[in-house]
Amino acid sequence: MTEIIDSSSAPQSVVQTAGAALKARRLELGYSLDKVSAQLKLTPRQIEAIESERFDELPGNTFVRGFVRNYARFLDLPMAPLLAHLETCLPQERQQAALPRVNEDASVLLGSGGKANTFLLGAVVTIGVAVGAAGVVWYLQQPVQPELLASATATLPKVVVLDEASEVAAQSASQTVSLQASAVAAETASVVSAVAIAKPAVASAPVVAPASAVQALVPGELTIAVQQDSWVQVQDSTGAKLVSELLRPGMARSVSGVPPYRLKVGNAPHTKLTFRNQIVDLTTYTRGDVATFELK
Questions:
Q1: Domain membership of residue 51 as a residue range
Q2: Do 269 and 258 touch, CB atoms closer than 8 A?
Q3: Residue 233: φ, ψ to 5°
Q4: Pairing of strands 241-247, 222-226
Q5: Do 225 and 291 belong together in one domain?
Q6: What is the pLDDT of residue 269?
């Protein structure tokens, strides 16, 4: 009795694709698409395209091989079977057109005329140098334009006049200050002498000048005194800096110039300012501890 075996009922081996093997291994390890994409620096859509073998959605065959190789290394799978499977299912890429080749006959012709080309190139260079030299000589021989001379001559005296005017103004301002100082000193001397003449009987006693006379010894319509360290800067209308220094506690400065005065006081709460024998309230000009204002 002959037994007939149905070949269709025999178990057949199922060939697993590269994408399916990668997906099965990922699911076995419990990795999500987001975790794999973050590890491989790819998008979740690219991971799905690799597992589904939609290679036409990926940049190219070279990139696909690299993606699969990195994916297999991350999942600890052998790479050789997966890469071998890829070679059977990757789409065929279009070959690049070959670059045109140089005609050998043309190169021979170019080589044979080398001497003539060299001679022609030398002639062109010589002519160019001669033309350039002639242009330079022509430019140097051109006379200077009278308009430029006239404008330069017209502008120079203006600058000199401005400088002289500023110097004269500064000198006049300094002379005015010195005259005021000498006049105040003369008045003080006359006051002291009058007191000495009026009281001859008290000649042996030390003569004490009045408070007004002591103030007049330091001429100035602007007086600054500080109780703590304070940076003070005073500038008059001519631009002269009458005071520009750090005043220590107990120090005072009395100056005069050409008003208006521009002042900047660094420690205004501990600075006392007197202008023309009147105390100036610095709180209205103070921002923080710094006061910036102008006195006319």
A1: 18-89
A2: no
A3: -135, 130
A4: unpaired
A5: yes
A6: 92
In a domain, 270, yes or no: yes
| Residue 248, pLDDT above cutoff 50 | yes
Report the SS3 class of residue 101.
coil
Angle formed at CA 30 by CA 25 and CA 34, multiple of 5 degrees: 95
Query: CA 150: distance to chain centroid?
Result: 42
Terminal C-alpha separation, the chain? 138
Distances (CA, A) of 2 to 6, 7, 90: 13, 15, 48
What is the 8-class DSSP label of residue 268? G
Q: Are residues 225 and 191 in the same domain?
A: no
Q: Considering the domain boundaries, does residue 238 fall inside one?
A: yes
pTM for this entry? 0.31
Based on the structure, what is the number of domains in the chain? 3
* Amino acid in the structure at residue 265: V
Cα gap 269→102, rounded to integer Å:
90
Reference 274, options 228, 246, 234, 217; nearest CA is 234
Q: Looking at the structure, do residues 40 and 80 belong to the same domain, yes or no?
A: yes
In a domain, 53, yes or no: yes
> Is 189 a domain residue?
yes
The last residue of one of the domains, among 74, 89, 104, is 89
Which of 16, 81, 99 is closest to 53 using CA atoms?
16
Tens digit of pLDDT for each residue in 29-80?
999 999 999 999 999 999 999 999 898 888 888 999 999 999 999 999 999 9
C-alpha 281/C-alpha 253 separation (Å) is 18
Find the CATH number of the domain harbouring 265: 2.60.40
Q: Can you list the alpha helix ranges (DSSP code H) found in 5-113?
A: 18-29, 33-40, 44-51, 61-75, 79-89, 104-112
Task: Residue 56: give its domain's CATH number.
Answer: 1.10.260.40
